[in-house]
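Running log. JK asked me to keep both predictions on one page so they can be read side by side. First protein, sequence followed by its tokens:
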Amino acid sequence: MSKLARFLFGAALPILGCFAAVGLAKPADIQLPPETAQLRPSELAGFVIAAQKCSLCHSADYINFQPPGMTLTQWTAEMTKMQHTYGAPIDDTEVKLLGIYLAATYGDASTVSAADRAMTAPSPSAP
């Protein structure tokens, strides 16, 4: 066996051994701690939407990590980003209702008008 063949064989053996070890490895069993964060309750329609849809992707704690005092415009922009960039399963009406809930409950409530607060979610249409 030539020096080159021995070198290639010697270099390939450890690599093949790593692949074999990975193939035999069991999947890791990861146990996450139970969820402790909760959304702040509200009578606003966005609260129900947030409870149903936002938690599909992240915990309620994620909201607390946002800058304090965000306005209705800023929260609505965040919801639009979630919808279009991250594919959140929310429609345009839900984007607005979520923005209202988040601004009124976690942000600058003075940017939410009485008309905004009076908005309700449309009834689901019958198939």
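And the second, directly underneath as requested:
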Amino acid sequence: MLKPVLNWDHGSGECAVRWSVGIEVEAGRVLTREQVVELADAVAASGGIASGIGTSRYGARLIVQAGSREEAVAKATEEVTQAAAKAGLPPGPVVRTEAVSEDEEAEDEEL
């Protein structure tokens, strides 16, 4: 469970919350264990995990702070793009995104 942490983002005028964001990218070729481990190492600094061993897509789930879903997806996409480059993975189109705020997660747990 994400712990509620609210921060006032003075730049956007919005209250930033933590988001769990999943990004999936088409690699165009089957990825090896070693390649995905490199991606996992690169996203670890952002509290991220990686996936994609034996598939033609790689992905990561990260925790980011943002004032909106769109901002959270944009921040996570940038981090995954940089991590993939660091890991030597091929660039490709983002084929799936998912973002859940800590508020949404808390509401789901209450049900």
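Observation for JK regarding the second prediction: DSSP finds three helices and five strands in the chain.
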